Model the fold of this input.
Amino acid sequence: MGQKWNPICQSFKSDANLASSAWFLVALSSGGADIDVCGAGALPLGVLTNDVGASNTDTKYVDVQVGGIVKVIAGGALTDGTLVMSDGSGEAIAATDGNYYLGQCLQDAADGELVAVIYGPGYLETT
Done:
C-alpha cells in the first residue's frame, strides 16, 4: 500500500466495555452522550485506536480516528475499492443497500486483518 497514513483523532467519552475493541468501528450511543462499538449498518463515528482495559465500564475518554485514512479490522474478505460498513461486532464488512458506511477500502484484506479505509461516511442507497 503506497498511501500515507494521516489519521485525524478526537477524544470521546465512554462508559462502555471496550476491552479488545481496538481498531473496531464505534458510534455515538443513543442520545449522543458517549460512544460504544458500532452496530450492524449503523452510522459510524470512526474507529477506536486502542484497547480500553478489560471489562472497564468506568467513564473514560478514548481516542477515535474520525478522518483521513483509518485502520479497521476486517470482518470478512474485502477488496480494494469496496465501501465498508460495520457488522454487528464493529468490524468492517462490504456495505449493503440501506445501511450507513464508513468509507472506501484502499486495499484487499482477509477476515481479521487490519485494513486501510479512506474516511467518508455515507448512506448506501442503490435503488
In short: The chain has one domain: 1-127.
